[in-house]
Write a structure and sequence with these properties.
The chain has 187 residues and is mainly beta. The protein has one helix at 2-18; strands spanning 32-38, 49-52, 55-58, 66-67, 77-80, 83-86, 94-99, 107-112, 124-126, 132-134, 139-142, 150-153, 168-176, 183-184. Bound molecules: 2-acetamido-2-deoxy-beta-D-glucopyranose (NAG) (2 copies).
C-alpha cells in the first residue's frame, strides 16, 4: 500500500510538472485547488472533497452548493497566511476552522462572513508531496456520514474522532485548478 502510494505520488508529480504553468489565483492572489482523498485500500480512495452544512466531506453526491458552474460540486480552496478558505468571487468569505480540543476531537467546520470561529483558523499548509495538512499532519476520513459520504477530520490524536468508527487516515491530495469554480456552500 505504501509503495503504491509512492508510485501514485510520483506519477502525479510528473503529470503536474508536464502541464503548462497555470497562473490561476483567488481574488487575493493565492492559488486555488480541489482535494482528492487517497487511501488505496479504502472505499474513500479518489473521492473528491465537498463542503456542505458547514462541514467537509469526501464522496458527497449532492452538496447543493450554489456555484458559477452548477454541475461542478466539489469544493475549491485556497490558503491565505495559514488559513484555509473556500473559493468564491463574492466578498463574503467562507473560512475553515478546526476544533482540536478534547470536545472537538479535530472536527472541521467553516464559517460564513463575519461569524466567529469555534476553533483554530491557522495551521493549514500543503506539504512537499502536495498533500493538504493541518498542524503538519494528514487528515482523517470517517464513513457513514450524511448521504453515505465520509466526514473529514483533522488529526487531533483521535483515530476515530467524534464517536465514529472505521475511520482511516488519508492523504488529502491537492489538485491545482486552472479555472476555479466559485461557490457558496450551504451552512
Ligand atoms: C500570475 O499573475 C499575477 C497577477 O497578474 C502576477 O503578478 C504573477 O507574477 C503571475 N505569476 C506567474 C507565475 O506567472
Ligand atoms: C441536497 O438536496 C437533496 C434534495 O433535496 C437532498 O436529498 C440532499 O440530502 C441534500 N444534500 C445535502 C448535503 O444537504
Amino acid at each position: 500500500m505504501q509503495f503504491k502510494n509512492l508510485i501514485l505520488a510520483a506519477s502525479a508529480a510528473v503529470t503536474a510538472s508536464a502541464l503548462p504553468a497555470a497562473n490561476t489565483t483567488s481574488t487575493t492572489g493565492e492559488s486555488t485547488f480541489g482535494v482528492i482523498a487517497i487511501h488505496s485500500t479504502s472505499a474513500v480512495q479518489y473521492a473528491a472533497f465537498a463542503a456542505a452544512k458547514s462541514s467537509l466531506f469526501a464522496g458527497l453526491a449532492h452538496p447543493n452548493a450554489t456555484c458559477a458552474r452548477p454541475a461542478e460540486q466539489s469544493a475549491t480552496f485556497y490558503i491565505n497566511d495559514g488559513a484555509l478558505f473556500l473559493y468564491d468571487e463574492s466578498a463574503t468569505p467562507q473560512e475553515i476552522f478546526v476544533d482540536a480540543s478534547g470536545m472537538g476531537q479535530g472536527v472541521i467546520g467553516y464559517t460564513t462572513g463575519a461569524q466567529s470561529a469555534p476553533g483554530e483558523r491557522k495551521g493549514w499548509a500543503i506539504d512537499a508531496n502536495d498533500h493538504l495538512q493541518f498542524g503538519g499532519k494528514d487528515l482523517i476520513a470517517c464513513p457513514n456520514s450524511i448521504d453515505g459520504a465520509w466526514s473529514i477530520w483533522a488529526d487531533a490524536g483521535y483515530a476515530n474522532p467524534g464517536y465514529n468508527s472505521d475511520c482511516v487516515g488519508i492523504a488529502a491530495r491537492v489538485e491545482k485548478t486552472s479555472n476555479p469554480n466559485g461557490c457558496v456552500y450551504t451552512q
